[in-house]
C-alpha cells in the first residue's frame, strides 16, 4: 500500500500534480484580459474541479497512511511542491496549449496508475478524475480551435 500512497502523493504535490494545475489555472484566471471573460471563468471553474480532486486525493493519501503534504517522495527523498513548476506565459495561445498539456499529462499519469494499482476503490477514484480531466480537454479544445488555429 505504501507504493500506492506514494503515487497518490505525487498526484497531490509533484511537478505534474493537482496543486500545480490549481495554481496554474488561478494564475491564468488572474492574468487573462477581461475581454476574455468566458475563458477566465472556464479557468476558475476548472480550478474548482481540481480543488475537489485535490481534496479527494489528499484524503486518499491519508487513508493510505501517508502524510498528505504538497510533496512527492522517491527513494526516501521527499521534495516539496514548488511554484517553479508553473508556466508563467501571458500569451493566450500559450496559456491554452499549456493547459491542454497539463490535462493530458495528468490523464496519462493516472491511466498508468490505474493499470498497476490493484485496488478497485482507488481505481474508481482515479477513473473519475480522468473523466473530469477529459471534460476539461473538451472545453479547452473549443478555445484552442477558436484562438490558436
Short description:
By secondary structure, the chain is mostly helical. The chain has helices at about 1-15, 20-30, 35-65, 90-115, 120-149; strands at about 70-75, 75-80.
Provide an overview of this structure.
With 149 residues, the protein is mainly α. The protein is built from 5 helices and 2 strands; from the N terminus they run H-H-H-E-E-H-H. The mean pLDDT is 96.
Number of helices, counting only DSSP H or I runs of 4 residues or more: 5
Name of the CATH architecture? Up-down Bundle
Task: Give the distance, in angstroms, between the N- and C-terminal Cα atoms.
Answer: 45 Å
In spatial order, strands of the major sheet run: 1-2
Shape: globular
Q: Average pLDDT value?
A: 96
CATH topology, by name, is Ferritin
Largest sheet: 2 strands, antiparallel
Broad CATH class: Mainly Alpha
What is the assigned CATH homologous superfamily?
Ferritin, core subunit, four-helix bundle
- Give me the Rg, rounded: 16 Å
Helix percent band:
over 70%
Secondary-structure class: mainly alpha
Sum up the structure in keywords.
mainly alpha; globular; 149 residues; Rubrerythrin diiron-binding domain-containing protein; metal ion binding; Rr_diiron-bd_dom; oxidoreductase activity; 5 helices; Ferritin-like_SF; two-stranded antiparallel ribbon
Write the topology of this structure.
Layout: H1 2-13, H2 18-31, H3 37-63, E1 71-74, E2 77-80, H4 92-116, H5 120-148
Antiparallel strand pairs: 1-2
Helix pairs in contact: 1-3, 2-3, 2-4, 3-5, 4-5
